[in-house]
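Batch manifest, entry 17 of 40.
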Amino acid sequence: MDTATFATGCFWCTEAKFQQLKGVKKVVSGYAGGHVVKPTYKQVSTGTTGHAEACNIVYDPSEITYDDLLAAFFKAHDPTQLNRQGNDVGTQYRSAIFYHSAAQKQKAAYYIGKLNSEKVYKTKVVTQLNPFTVFYKAEDYHQNFYNQNPNQRYCKLVIQPELAKFKQVFKDKLKP
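Output type: structure tokens
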């Protein structure tokens, strides 16, 4: 098993998308990249802790590669939006990759460079590339949020349409 740590805005949406992929064994919502020890959701939501809402994605490299996860990462959100995703605004919603190894760093940097040089997006990719240091698991009610709350307003209006698009793009990589 290996781990990728990604921030793509709201962790509820990130978790819901990555849970769909074959080879992904577990997705844990939490906080990474900040300076406050053991932050709470309330603290992170202020945008003052330095943390991003992020997910630890535990995967089996024999079933899905880090390259595949990077491709999903860059399709799962808009990596050109600085400190926001849609209506979610603040540094806690930034686009970030927290690499666990030199190989992950190299692949992510290559991918960002390629997207920018090929002008895949109208504007430059602003995804931060940071070393993984510590990850704080979010409160229990944030775990598996979409699956447990599919009729919640945010889930219906934001996550469901994004999840449908994600599934269409990665239909050959989805769990049965």
